[in-house]
Specification:
Number of strands: 25
Radius of gyration: 29 Å
Mean pLDDT: 81
Distance between the termini: 81 Å
Number of helices: 7
Strand order of the largest sheet: 12-24-23-22-17-18-20
Low-confidence stretches: 162-168, 373-381
Structural class: alpha+beta
Strand content: 35-45%
Shape: elongated
Helix content: 10-25%
Largest sheet: 7 strands, mixed
Length: about 375
Amino acid sequence: MEIVIVAFLLLVFFMIEIVFFKIILKRGLNYSLTFSKFEAFEGEDMFVDEEIYNRKPFPVPWVKADIHSSKWLEFAGASSSVVDERRFVTSGFVLKAYQRTRRRWYMKCTKRGVFDIDNATVTCGDILGLITESKAVPVNRRLVVYPGMTDIDEMFFSTKDILGEAVVKRFILDDPFIVKGIRDYVPGDAINRINWKATAKTGGLMVNENDFTTKVGITVLMNVQSDYEEFDFVKNRDVIELAIKVSSTILNRGFRQAVPIRYGSNASTYDDADNMILTESGTGQEHMRHMLYKLAQVRLKNIRDFAIYLSMLESQIRDTQIYIVTAYMCDEIADEARRLAVLDNTVKILVLDTRMEEGNQYRDLEIFYMKRRPWKTEGELPQ
C-alpha cells in the first residue's frame, strides 16, 4: 500500500512539475545578440555578445541558445557544427529568478561577404528533463566583411620590367599627380594634400598644387570567370577571391590619392542578382565604403562572358586609368583592351593565373603576371 501511495505521490509531483514548467518556462525570457561592430575586414577578429534575462520569479533549470550564422564566421572556443554553408553555435545557461547573464564570444571573419543572423533558437527545459520548450527569437543582425587587401606591387611582375639582365622596378599603380607648387588651403581640399612643412613655416594651412600626369580617375574591371570556358558558376573560387582582393587594393589606392574611382564586373551582387556591376565614379570615404560593399556582395557567377562585358562599356569609359583584373588572358580580352585604349584610356591588365605564359601577340599591351610565390595581406577601414 505504501508503495502505491508513493507512486501516486510521485505521479502527482511529476504532473504538477510538468504543468508548472510548461506554463512558465518560456514566459519572461528575453534573449539578445549584438556584434562589437557591424563592418570588418577579412581575417579580422571581433566580439559577439549574447545576453539572456529571466524576468520572472521562478528559476529556469537549463536554457540552450543556438545561433544560426555562416560557416565563414568562426567562434573561438564554441561548441558548433557546420552544415553546408551554415554554422550552428550552441551555448548553455542556468538561470535563477530575475537573473541576467551575458556571454562574449571571440569571432574571426574568415571570408568577405554580407552575413545576416536573422534569429536564434532558444530551448529551455524542466529539472527532470521531461519537457522542453523552444522558440525562435528574432536577432536581425547584419555584418559586412570587406575583402582583404594585398601588396600588388610585390605580387606581380611584367616582362617589360626586364631590361637586359637588369630588373627595372615599375609600379602597377602610377601616382596621378606631380607637385608644381604650394598654395593656401581652401575648404574641400583633401587632407592628404596638406604640405605640413610649408604649414609649419607660414603658420597657416598650405597644400600642394598638382599637375595631372595620367588619366583622370581609376576604373577597375574584374573578370569573375576563373576559366576561359566557364559559363556559369565559378569553378576555381580561390583565384576569384584573390581577384576581389586585388580589385579592393587598387580602389583603396585611388581613394587614398583622392582620385575618382569606379568598379565593374561581369558578376552580379546578392542585392541585384540580375545585373552586372558598374558603379558611378566618385571620391570620398562614403564612396569607398560603397565600393567595398559591392566587393563584399559579389556573387561567384558570371552574367556575360567578360569580353562581351568589356565591349558593352566602350561608350561609357573614357579618359581614365583602366585596370583589368582577370584569371586568364585570351585574344578576345586583348582585342577589347586595345579598343578601350583607343578611347583615351590607359589600360593595364593583371593576370592572376600563375600558369599563364605571356604570348607574343600581347606584347603591345601592358600586362602584369602574378609571381609564383605567397603574397602578404593588409587592410583597414577607410578613415
